[in-house]
Specification:
By secondary structure, this protein is α/β, with parallel strands linked by helices. Helices cover 40% and strands 18% of the residues. The chain has twelve helices and eight strands. Strands 1-2-4-3-5-6-7-8 form an eight-stranded mixed beta sheet, sandwiched between helices. Helix 1 crosses helix 12 and helix 2 packs across helix 3. The radius of gyration is 17 Å and the shape is globular.
Length: 273
Amino acid sequence: MTLESRHTKIEGYDVHYWEGGNGFSVLMLHGVGPGTSIMGNFEPAMAPLAERYHLVASDLIGFGDSGRKTGQPYFDVDLWVRQGLALLDMLPDGPCGIAGHSMGGALSLKIAAASDRITHVLTSSTVGTSYDLTPALDAFWSLPADRDELRAAMADMVADPAAVTDAMIEGRWDLLAQDGYADYFGEMFKPPRQRYIDAGRVTDADFEALNARGVNIAMIHGTEDKPCPVDRTTAELSKRLPDARVMLVENCGHNLPRESTQTYLATAFDLFG
């Protein structure tokens, strides 16, 4: 199934997304980091998902091929939630699903809490709690001086550093090398970085809305996730989401859709039907 690269305007910002497939509609959102994009997080999984579902997979404002914010704060959870809600309006009428990775997982839970259209949520390696910033995440959210620093930060994203390929490094570096983007990223993740974890916290009101509507939630997380340890993130969130299904993936780090693609796809197929 071919995915087409498209653009739309949301709150005056150019938003890039990939769209393709038929059937149950699923919105996909990525995490946040140096050179991150929807393809950067999900590329191996997107075409197989589009074989079964109508997929809209978007670069968040400030990332990938989407436009950048024109004023602070560049790290803007509220804007990204509104972006997700606006993208939902572009989907065909009826129930839909949402799949988010890392910070995109927290965004997905927040968007689902705000929209009664979303009946199914899939999170991978999600954040959403106010846990203490880990050294691995602190390093990942720091502006790398060169490819070697980027590779070192990326190595902590996976269980096996050999999984960080030259193509992954070049793809992210190409985005960082865009005119002015390194400065933009540096400002977006200016210390103290604990505030960015806290900004993505799933609120009491979010939990209440998700539980009241009986949203079908599956949460998948690697046991070797260094930046976003499962016991401080997914495990804690699931205590407030008693009907959520939690799957732990052995020998898998943070970049789960790439490291354990088949497990990710099996979980998605089981959830979305």
